[in-house]
Amino acid sequence: MTTHRPCTLAVHAGNHADPATGAVAPPIHLATTFRHGPAGERIAGYEYQREGDPTNDRLREALVALEGGATALTFASGMAAMTTALESLPAGSRVLFPDDCYSGLRMLFNEFLPERGLVVETVDMADLDAVRAACATPLAMLWIETPSNPLLKVCDIAALADIGHAAGALAVVDNTFATPLLQRPLALGADIVMHSTTKYFGGHSDVLGGALVFARDDGFANKVAHRLHVTGAVLAPFSAWLILRGCRSLGARMAMHCANARKLAEFLATHPAVERVNWPGLPTHPGHAVAAKQMRDFGAMLSVELRGGREAALAVAGRLRIFTNATSLGGCESLVEHRASVEGPNPRSPQNLLRVSVGLEDGDDLIADFRQALG
Ligand SMILES: *Cc1c(COP(=O)(O)O)cnc(C)c1O
């Protein structure tokens, strides 16, 4: 399947017809245990669900094909994927994280990784000189998130992978916002791609999951797999099936998500109540050139900073009717969130910022909703 284009892969990868019945939609195998020989010989390749099952294997196959990797692992959530990868590094390893990133990752590296013996630092990854300077000391892993949450900062994956490799580090990219339909980090030189499959892969706000796709099926990939199978943050077969079902329409959904985001971003950028729109597809975005180089389209996450501070942002969020005030992203329905209100006691997001996940409604209705909410 690897010679096909992404939309074809999204529909077909891992979707071989069930040999027993010819069923075109895959079965869900709920079995926790699989018959083996008297001396433990695996008969069909499976033994115990925590170590792998046929439904998860189909999803792993789809992820490998879409990201162009050598092997993939699926997890109970995006956070489980991150944690299992990071805790597979030896104690004393130094890891560099982006200054703007998913808030769960920030909690993980501030609260939990140091007590596991990891040395954690943050840097602005859009500033390559700052990353080069930080890579002067030995580094185990460079964690990249582009476009980033919630400021939609863009960083150059190929350049960062080169800098990381020169320092002896693995380059990992959180590709949740872009999906492999828009951006393929392994082809740009990254070593590992991470996903919260809860978002665009699942696509319907009804399943939690995570994934890692590895460029090489090597010692580190085996180490992470072994840790997953022993520590057990595995994905349930029904969840794997739902994510695989979402994957089948990923190409079509991403095309419409991106078209709607473009319309909305262009409208918001001209509105007098708006101070700034953060969407990499706008030529005024500082990361536009890099995004145009490494992405097929610019994604459907954006954030908007309003004139009038916190009050103005909360008023707009309260007046929107089609957009639901809720966290998360990547579902069919459009969502809006005042990030500073949900980031805990020390919010990092600007108080006048609303994060928007642009959904699959009619783009003109989304514009009309913002027009009435902005007043
Ligand atoms: C949601 C998200 C995660 C965490 O994934 P969960 O499935 O919620 O555990 C990580 N990175 C990004 C960019 C996300 O949006």
From TrEMBL:
<dbReference type="InterPro" id="IPR015422">
    <property type="entry name" value="PyrdxlP-dep_Trfase_small"/>
</dbReference>
<dbReference type="InterPro" id="IPR054542">
    <property type="entry name" value="Cys_met_metab_PP"/>
</dbReference>
<dbReference type="InterPro" id="IPR000277">
    <property type="entry name" value="Cys/Met-Metab_PyrdxlP-dep_enz"/>
</dbReference>
<feature type="modified residue" description="N6-(pyridoxal phosphate)lysine">
    <location>
        <position position="199"/>
    </location>
</feature>
<comment type="similarity">
    <text>Belongs to the trans-sulfuration enzymes family.</text>
</comment>
<dbReference type="GO" id="GO:0004123">
    <property type="term" value="F:cystathionine gamma-lyase activity"/>
</dbReference>
<dbReference type="GO" id="GO:0003962">
    <property type="term" value="F:cystathionine gamma-synthase activity"/>
</dbReference>
<protein>
    <submittedName>
        <fullName>Cystathionine gamma-synthase</fullName>
    </submittedName>
</protein>
<dbReference type="Pfam" id="PF01053">
    <property type="entry name" value="Cys_Met_Meta_PP"/>
</dbReference>
<dbReference type="InterPro" id="IPR015421">
    <property type="entry name" value="PyrdxlP-dep_Trfase_major"/>
</dbReference>
<dbReference type="GO" id="GO:0019343">
    <property type="term" value="P:cysteine biosynthetic process via cystathionine"/>
</dbReference>
<dbReference type="GO" id="GO:0030170">
    <property type="term" value="F:pyridoxal phosphate binding"/>
</dbReference>
<dbReference type="InterPro" id="IPR015424">
    <property type="entry name" value="PyrdxlP-dep_Trfase"/>
</dbReference>
<dbReference type="GO" id="GO:0019346">
    <property type="term" value="P:transsulfuration"/>
</dbReference>
<dbReference type="GO" id="GO:0005737">
    <property type="term" value="C:cytoplasm"/>
</dbReference>
<keyword id="KW-0663">Pyridoxal phosphate</keyword>
